Amino acid sequence: MDHDTFASMLAIGETVAVEFKRCGNGIEHDVYESICAFLNRFGGDLFMGVSDDGAVLGVPEKAAPDMVKNFISMISNPANFTPTVYLAPELLRYEGCTVIHIHVPPSAEVHSYKRVIYDRVDDADVKVTATAQIASMYIRKQNIFTEKKIYPYASMEDLRLDLLPQVRQMAVNHAGGRHPWEVMDDQELLMSAGLYGTDIATGEKGYNLAAILLLGKDDVIFNVCPTYETDGLVRKVNVDRYDDREIIRTNLIESFDHLMEFTRKHLPDKFFLEDENRVSLRNILAREMVSNTLMHREFTSSYAAKFVIGSEQMFTENASRAVKEGFITPDSLEPNPKNPIIASFFRNIGRADRLGSGVRNLFKYSKFYSGADPVFQEGDVFRIIVPLNEAYSFDQGMVHGGIVETSAKTSAKTSAKTSAKTSAKAAMCLTETERMILRSVKEDPRITQKELAELIGLSNSGIRYAMKKLKEKGLLIRNGPNRNGGWQLNGYQQDNR
Question: What is the number of domains present in the chain?
């Protein structure tokens, strides 16, 4: 690791993928707990000889080689690590101090240290004892899709075959008049959609989990996935409980319809023209959010999926088999299918588009509906947050002096007004430190936390806390890796305070 990269990581501080250990009296047990947590999550970098606030103290130079040997001996001992792991510590010299750097790649196994499993949550190492949590870790590590699990004793009697005429018609309509499913019988359609197959490992043949979730009868779905449900909630007045609630436990085809009706009941459908055609912003946003939470969740998890409508935002939450952690933007989007069979089925019937299009559509149309960008957060729980503002209206194709402006001109003019209003409202909720951080980031998106601390006159921990709050408010987004990434402002323009 080079000098500049290390300095950058010191400035950013501890994250889900970076850990500092002082190790003034040798290697403590918490070092190995962090190594175990990194292995079980997405990997990371651990530095011995650095305090929690990023100050480089170093380890005793003469003791460093022995510390490295002891470390390697510990992680290769099956009495300590199960399974064992090989890592290559690196000695760094920084500002006259010796630092031991250990890069931990993500592992395909679930590891334990002294028979305890650890996971990485934000910048902390957490003991994992709950069976459901441990199961989700194994699912995340497996290079398989649980939707492909075969149920050899499931039969066509367990499926809602009465839905197939509707499915055929939806596929034909989406294809523009003709679709192969139109002329197939029921069994041929199910096989064509990948809902009936063979487990190569066991030789078992039958309907898979995707078939049961898409078309299964309610009692069959409950038998296979006892915790499966989608909880629709409205929290505008009673935010502690709810104003309205609908718990949906039926197949994915009808779940989509129930959730869309739920949004039509509780969200206004604002007027909007696109290319001189009236389109429903509400339906577009709801379709993308609903289809995403139904298609891409991890159905074997006990985490209850939610679709919540509040006064200032609506959001979905569902269990996910994450391959990384953090925020997703159109620029950082790396499409990763969670349930390709279910997603393909949804695309065939017109309830989803190509992978990644949902993110782009939400970023595009959320601005027209509420004047602000959505937030996508990847992790074991996947979240989509779409801001709401009932007072906001975006009129496209407005008439001025008898002349109808072009969409581009009107969009630019209205967006400028909206951005100013949104920024002013956000600025009212910010502290002076937060405003200074946002102004500095706007001038230099690659500024480090250490540089911000020196510029503003705060401690590193103070800067980290303020930036954490800005990220929670959705005004600041981290793009790219910790080593060479940068910051992005989200819906904020510099105020004059």
Answer: 4
Residue 232's alpha-carbon distances to 10, 93, 225, 248, 356, in angstroms, are 43, 55, 19, 8, 24
DSSP-assigned letters across all residues of 110-143: --EETTBEEEEETTEEEEE--HHHHHHHHHHH-S
Helix (H, G, I), strand (E, B) or coil at 354: coil
At 89, which amino acid appears? P
Strand partners, 278: 273
The answer for residues whose C-beta is within 8 angstroms of residue 361's C-beta and 6 or more apart is 284, 288, 353
pLDDT of residue 465: 73
Closest CA to 42 of 137, 173, 168: 137
Query: Is the distance from CB of 376 to CB of 327 less than 8 angstroms?
Result: yes
Is the model's pLDDT at 404 over the cut of 50?
Answer: no
Residue 496 placed within a domain: no
Find the domain containing 333 and state its range.
230-387
CA atoms within 13 A on the CB side of 253: 23
* pLDDT in the model for residue 461: 65
pTM for this model (two decimals): 0.63
∠ CA 465-467-472 to the nearest 5 degrees? 95
Q: What is the identity of the amino acid at 362? A: L
Question: Given a cut of 70, is residue 442 above it in pLDDT?
Answer: yes
Q: What is the C-alpha end-to-end distance of the chain, expressed in Å?
A: 41
pLDDT digits (tens, 9 = 90+) for 47-60: 999 999 899 999 99
Encode pLDDT of 137-187 as tens digits.
877 776 667 898 999 999 999 999 999 999 999 999 998 888 999 999 999
Average pLDDT of the chain, as a whole number: 85
Q: Please identify which residue in the block is written with the tokens 């030789």.
A: 203
What are phi and psi for residue 271, nearest 5 degrees?
Answer: -70, 135
Do 143 and 231 contact (CB within 8 A), yes or no? Answer: no
414 is a domain residue: no
Q: What is the mean pLDDT of residues 133-139?
A: 78
Find out whether 276 and 270 touch, Cβ atoms under 8 Å.
no
Q: How many CB atoms lie within 10 A of CB 48?
A: 28
- Sequence length of the chain is 497
Which of residues 224, 246, 271 is at a domain's end? 224
Of 65, 67, 75, residue with least CA distance to 32: 75
Q: Which segment of 3-7, 114-118, 153-157, 233-237 scores lowest on mean pLDDT?
A: 3-7
Same domain flag for 111 and 157: no
Under 8 Å between Cβ of 407 and 275: yes
